[in-house]
Automatic annotation (TrEMBL):
Belongs to the CD36 family. One of its GO terms (cellular component) is cytoplasm. It is found in: Membrane. The lineage of its organism: Eukaryota, Metazoa, Ecdysozoa, Nematoda, Enoplea. PANTHER family: LYSOSOME MEMBRANE PROTEIN 2, SCAVENGER RECEPTOR CLASS B TYPE-1 SR-B1. The chain crosses the membrane at residues 90-112, 548-571. InterPro entries: CD36_fam (IPR002159). Its main location: membrane. It comes from Trichuris muris. This is CD36 family protein. Pfam families: CD36.
Length: 581
C-alpha cells in the first residue's frame, strides 16, 4: 500500500485523448518496422516517439490545469470560494433590510400625530351634511331626568314656633328625555344658528317603587312668596301689606301649599295670585305673569334658545363657543359686565384634543350665568377612556374675586346664614347659593347644588334632612379627550325658595327667615353603544393599527441590525483564529 496517496487528476479533455491515441498507434507501427533496422536506428526512432508523447502529455497537463483554474474563477459558490466574503454579503443584506424597516416604522409613528389630528378634525366637523352634524342634531344619547322633592313635615311649627324645617326626600320621579335641534342655519362666517327642542315623558321604571305623579308634596307656595318679594322691593307701605295679607288669608293662600308632583312639575296649576296679578297687570305692565304655576311648566314639548354657535371650521379651538343666546351676547341678571357675559358652549360641544389642564367653560340658561368645569380624574366609560370634569366648589365661593359680580346685594336678611355689609346695610347670599330672582320673573328663587353641597355648614344645618355627597350631587361630564365627545353627562341642580320673616304679615311674624329646598334634579345622558363603536372604529382603530405596524417595523429593524452586527464580529473572530493556526 503506498504511503502517500497520489493526488487524483482530472480526466484529459477529449481532443487531447484522441491526439495521444493517434500518436501511440503511429509509434506501434514504427516499432513493427524496427525489426530489420540496426540498433542505432531503433534507438533514434524510439527517442523521436518519446519526445512526441512527452510533448503531448505536457500540453495535456497544461490544458487541464488552465481548465481547472478557469473553472474555479467562474464558480463563485464552489468549495474553493472564500466563505467570509459570502457571510459579509449576507450580513450586509440583513443590516440593510433592518435599517429600512427602522426608517419605515419611524416614518409611520412620526406622521401618526398629524394623521390622528386630521382624522379627528374630519370626524367631528360640524359642516352641513356631515355625520357629526347628524349626531349633533339628533343626539345619540339615552337621556333621562330624575326629580326628588323635599316634603316639609312640620309647616305649623315653622310658622308659629320658629322651628327648623324638617324635610323628607321623595323620589326619584323618572322621565325619559329627547332633544332635537331645529331651525338649523349655517352662516358664511362659520357660525350655526339653532334652537333646541325638548320632550319629557314619565317613566315608572326609572322612578322609585311607589313613586307616582299623583303623589302629593307639601312645599313653599312660590306665588305667595313672589308677591311678598315684589312688595318688599317696591317699598310698599305696611298698611297696604297688611291689607293684602288679610286678603290672601281670605282666599286660602299661605306660606306652604300641597300639590301633586304632576302639578308642581310640567302640568302646572291655576293660582289665585296669578289670576289677581293679571287683573291688575296695568299697574306693572313690564311684569310677566305666567298662566300657571309649575317648576317645569312651559318646558315640555317646547323650544329653548335661539342659539348662535361657532362651528370651529376656521379655528377648531373655537368649536362650540356660543356667540349669542336669544340674540344677545350677555344677560342682564348680575351687577357687572363680566358676570353678565355669555362664555363657553351650551355644555354639549367642545374643542378637541383636551388636556388634563383644560377648563371647560359653559353657559347655563337655567342659572342665567356662565361657569366652568375642571378636570377631576381619569375614568373608564364603557370601552373608552375618558376625563371626568366637574363644577368645582370655587364656582360658588362668594369670597373669590371673580364671583363678586354674582353676589346680588339685597336688603333681605337671613340672620342665620348671612353677613351684613354694615357700610351699605346690604347683604349677599353666602357661598353655595345663587340668587336668580332677576331672571325668574322676580320670584325669590335661589339655586344651589343638591343638598346644599358646597354651601357652608351654617346653610346646610339651617334645615333638617339634608345629606350632601360629592359623588352623588356634583354636576359632571365624562368626555373622550381626543374628540371631545361627551360619553356621559350628569347635570344636577337644586331649586330653593327664599322665605323671609315679615312683621307686617300676621302669619309670618313668628317664623325664621330661611332658604327652603323644594326639589333637586339630575338630567343625565349616556352615549349609546352604536355611537361608541363608531368612535372606536373611526378614531382609535386606525391609530391602533398604525401604532402596532410602526412599532413592529421598528422592533424588527432594530433586531435585524443588532443581529447583523453581532454575527459580523462573531465570524470575524472565527476568521482571526483560523489565520493564527
Amino acid at each position: 500500500m503506498e504511503s502517500v496517496r497520489k493526488k487524483r487528476r482530472a480526466p484529459l479533455p477529449p481532443p487531447l485523448r484522441q491526439s495521444i491515441s493517434k500518436e501511440a498507434a503511429r509509434a506501434q507501427n514504427e516499432h513493427s518496422v524496427l525489426g530489420g533496422k540496426s540498433a542505432g536506428a531503433r534507438i533514434g526512432l524510439l527517442r523521436n516517439v518519446g519526445c512526441r508523447l512527452g510533448a503531448l502529455r505536457h500540453c495535456a497537463l497544461s490544458s487541464v490545469q488552465r481548465f481547472e483554474r478557469a473553472s474555479r474563477r467562474v464558480r463563485p459558490f464552489s468549495d474553493a470560494h472564500d466563505p467570509m466574503k459570502l457571510r459579509k454579503a449576507c450580513l450586509l443584506l440583513v443590516g440593510s433590510v433592518g435599517a429600512l424597516l427602522l426608517i419605515g416604522g419611524s416614518i409611520i409613528l412620526g406622521i401618526l400625530p398629524n394623521f390622528v389630528r386630521n382624522g379627528v378634525l374630519e370626524a367631528i366637523s360640524l359642516s352641513n351634511g356631515s355625520k357629526a352634524e347628524k349626531g349633533w342634531i339628533d343626539p345619540p344619547y339615552e337621556m333621562s331626568m330624575q326629580v326628588w322633592f323635599f316634603n316639609i313635615t312640620n309647616p305649623d311649627e315653622v310658622m308659629l314656633y320658629q322651628a327648623k324645617p324638617s324635610l323628607v326626600e321623595m323620589g326619584p320621579y323618572g322621565f325619559d328625555e329627547r332633544q332635537h335641534k331645529v331651525a338649523v342655519t349655517y352662516y358664511d362666517n362659520g357660525t350655526i344658528g339653532y334652537q333646541n327642542f325638548k320632550w319629557f315623558q314619565f317613566n315608572a321604571s326609572k322612578s322609585c317603587d311607589h313613586c307616582r305623579l299623583s303623589d302629593v308634596v307639601n312645599v313653599p307656595n312660590v306665588p305667595f312668596w313672589s308677591l311678598l318679594h315684589k312688595l318688599r322691593r317696591s317699598g310698599s307701605m305696611p298698611k297696604l301689606k297688611k291689607f293684602i295679607s288679610y286678603g290672601l288669608l281670605g282666599v286660602g293662600e299661605g306660606a306652604f301649599i300641597t300639590k301633586s308632583v304632576d302639578a308642581l312639575l310640567f302640568t302646572g296649576y291655576n293660582d289665585i295670585i296669578f289670576a289677581m296679578a293679571k287683573m291688575f297687570h296695568w299697574l306693572s305692565p313690564d311684569t310677566k305673569v305666567p298662566d300657571r304655576m309649575g317648576f317645569m311648566y312651559g318646558k315640555n314639548w317646547t323650544l329653548d334658545g335661539a342659539y348662535l354657535m361657532n362651528s370651529g371650521q376656521a379655528n377648531y379651538l373655537e368649536r362650540g363657543r356660543l356667540e349669542l343666546y336669544k340674540g344677545r351676547s350677555s344677560v342682564d341678571a348680575w351687577v357687572d359686565v363680566w358676570s353678565n357675559m355669555i362664555n363657553g358652549s351650551d355644555g354639549t360641544v367642545y374643542p378637541p384634543f383636551l388636556e388634563r389642564t383644560s377648563r371647560l367653560p359653559l353657559f347655563s340658561p337655567d342659572l342665567c350665568r356662565s361657569l366652568y368645569m375642571d378636570y377631576l380624574k381619569d375614568v373608564r366609560s364603557g370601552e373608552l377612556n375618558a376625563y371626568r370634569f366637574t363644577v368645582p366648589a370655587e364656582v360658588f365661593d362668594d369670597k373669590r374675586a371673580e364671583n363678586a359680580g354674582f353676589c346680588w346685594p339685597t336688603d333681605v336678611y337671613y340672620p342665620e346664614i348671612q353677613k351684613v355689609e354694615y357700610s351699605t346695610g346690604l347683604a349677599c347670599l353666602p357661598s353655595g347659593l345663587l340668587n336668580v330672582s332677576k331672571c325668574q320673573m322676580d320670584a325669590p328663587i335661589v339655586l344651589s347644588s343638591p343638598h346644599f353641597l358646597y354651601a357652608s355648614d351654617v346653610v346646610q344645618n339651617s334645615v333638617f334632612g339634608l345629606r350632601p355627597n360629592v359623588e352623588e350631587h356634583t354636576t359632571r361630564i365624562d368626555i373622550e379627550p381626543v374628540s371631545s365627545v361627551g360619553l356621559e353627562f350628569q347635570r344636577k341642580l337644586q331649586i330653593n325658595v327664599g322665605m323671609v320673616q315679615d312683621g307686617d304679615f300676621s302669619t309670618l311674624k313668628r317664623m325664621r327667615s330661611v332658604i327652603m329646598p323644594v326639589l333637586w334634579l339630575n338630567e343625565s345622558a349616556y352615549l349609546n353603544a352604536e355611537a361608541r363603536r363608531d368612535i372606536w372604529q373611526r378614531l382609535f382603530l386606525p391609530r391602533l393599527v398604525a401604532k402596532i405596524v410602526g412599532s413592529a417595523l421598528i422592533t424588527t429593524g432594530v433586531i435585524s441590525i443588532l443581529l447583523a452586527i453581532g454575527l459580523f464580529f462573531f465570524y470575524r473572530r472565527i476568521q482571526e483564529k483560523q489565520e493564527t493556526i
